[in-house]
Amino acid sequence: MKQVITLRVNGIVEEVYIEPWWTLSRVLREELGLVGTKEACGNGFCGSCTVLIDGKAVKSCLYLAMKARGKEITTIEGLKGKDGGLHPLQKAFVQHFAVQCGYCTAGMIIAAKAMLDENPNPSEEEIRAGLSGNLCRCTGYLKIVEAILACTERGE
Amino acid sequence: MRFNYLEPRTIEEAVSLLIRCQGMAKVIAGGTDLLNQIRLKMIKPEYLVDIGYIPDLDYIKYDSEGWLSIGTLATIRSLEMSAEIQQRHPVISQAASLLGSMAIRNVGTIGGNLCHASPSAETAPALIGLEARVKVVGSDGERTVPLENFFTGPGQTVLQRGELMVEIQVPPMPAGTKGVYLKHSTRGTVNPAIVGVAAIVAMDGKRCKEIKLVLGAVAPTPIRAKKAEEILRGEEIDDTLIEKAAQAASDESSPITDVRASADYRKEMVKVFTRYALRNGITH
C-alpha cells in the first residue's frame, strides 16, 4: 500500500508517495528526478547506484527507501566544493579524463568521497581496494585512480 | 518486487508477526542479501518483517569473563572496525573485512549473514572455529544453538517458523590461541568465496595443543574438517603433517560446480588454502 514518507536528500526535506518495496535508487531517480545516481546491475555488485547515507557508502539498489527515513542521504547532486561549484573530486575526474561513458562515474565519486572522508591519505593500493565494489565497464580505472590520488592530502 | 512491509518495535511483536504470517514472511535487517534474492526472483515473500526498528539489537560487548556478545543487527563493518574485537578476537574482524564491498559491509548485518545461511557465509567459518553459539527467540522463549549445528543446508537453518536470531555469543580466545581466516575469491573481496578456510590454533612450542579447522563454500554448509583436525591435534607440526591435513580437508569437502568455480578446482584450493592457513596459524 502506498504511503507518504519524508526523506532528507542533499539537505532538503522531501515528501514522497511510495510503495514499500521501492528501493532508494528508484525513489531518487523516478520520484525525485535525481538521475545522477545510476542503477546498472541492480544486485549490489556494480556500485553505480552508490549514495551516502549518514556519510557512509551504501548501494541504493539494495536499500529500501522506507529504511532511509530519518537519515541524511547524499547523492552526486549534493556534492559541492567550498566555493559552491564542483566538488574537488568532480573537478579531478574532469581534469584527469576519468569519465568515459559516465555510467559508473557518480558511484565512483561517491565511493571515493566515503573513502577519503575516512582516510584522507590512502595509498594507490588502498584506493584500488576501496573501489573494488565499483565496476567501470569501459575499464577506465587508471584515470579514475589518478583522479582520486590527486584529491588525497599528498596530491593536493 | 512486491510485499507488505511490517515494522515491529519489539522482539515479541516480530515473533508474533512471523507466526501470524504463516511462512509467507521473511525477516529483513540490512537487506543486502534478501533484496538481492527477491530482485533475482529466487524468493517471493508476501511480507517483510523489518527488525531494524527494534531497539538494542545493535551492539558489540565483552563481559567480565571475556565473552563477546554481538547483537544480530551489528553491521559487518562494525565488526571489522571494532577496536575491541580487533584486539580480543582479531579473526572475526579479519573475516568481516573480507565480506563484499564496503558499501555492503556498511549495511549488511551479522544476523543476516548467518541466517541467510549461504555455504560461503563469510563470517561463519571463523565463528564456528571459535565455538560461537547463537541466541534464538521464539514464541516458547529462547534457546541457544552452537553455530556449528545452526546450518542445515544451503539457505537452511535450524530456525523454526517465528524464531529470530537475536545474539551471537563467542567464548574468549585462550591466551596463545591464534585465528586465521583466508578467503579465495575473484574481484578482491567483492565476490563470494570460492573457498574459505578458518583455522583456530593453539600451539605449545611445535606441538599443536588444539585446533579447529572450518571450511566455507565447499559443502552444503560451512563444515569442520574434523579428520584434518585429528591429524594435527596433539602432534608436532611439520610440513609433512600439514600436507596430510590439507589433503584430508580436501577429501572432507564436497563442493559443487557453479558459476564461480568447478568442484575439482575448489577441492584443489581447499588443499592450498588449508596449507596457507595452517602455516600462518602455527607461526606466532
Notes on the structure:
The complex is a heterodimer of chains A (156) and B (284). With 156 residues, chain A is an alpha+beta fold. Chain A folds into 2 domains: 76 residues, Beta-grasp domain (Ubiquitin-like (UB roll), Roll), CATH 3.10.20; 63 residues, DNA polymerase, domain 1. Helix content of chain A is 30%, strand content 16%. Chain A has 5 helices and 5 strands, in the order ββαβββαααα. The termini of chain A are far apart. The relative contact order of chain A is 0.16. The model of chain A has no long low-confidence stretch (mean pLDDT 96). Chain B is of the alpha+beta class and 284 residues long. Chain B folds into 3 domains: 50 residues, Uridine Diphospho-n-acetylenolpyruvylglucosamine Reductase, domain 2, CATH 3.30.43; 111 residues, Uridine Diphospho-n-acetylenolpyruvylglucosamine Reductase, domain 3; 106 residues, Enolase-like, domain 1, CATH 3.30.390. The radius of gyration of chain B is 19 Å and the shape is globular. The termini of chain B are far apart. The chains are: A alpha+beta (156), B alpha+beta (284). Chains A and B meet through strand 4 and helix 3 of A and helix 2 and helix 6 of B.
Spans of chain A of 5+ residues with little confidence (pLDDT < 50)? none
Residues in helices of chain A, as a percent range: 25-40%
Let me know the largest β-sheet of chain B. Answer: 5 strands, antiparallel
CATH architecture of the largest domain in chain A: Roll
Count up the domains of chain A: 2
Shape of chain B: globular
Strand content of chain A: 15-25%
Question: What is CATH's topology name of the largest domain in chain B?
Answer: Uridine Diphospho-n-acetylenolpyruvylglucosamine Reductase, domain 3
Write down how many β-strands of chain B occur, each being a DSSP E stretch of 2 or more residues.
14
What CATH first level of the largest domain in chain B would be assigned?
Alpha Beta
Supply the CATH superfamily name of the largest domain in chain A: Beta-grasp domain
If you consult CATH, what is the topology of the largest domain in chain A? Ubiquitin-like (UB roll)
The number of distinct structural domains of chain B comes to 3
Secondary-structure element order of chain A, as H and E? Answer: EEHEEEHHHH
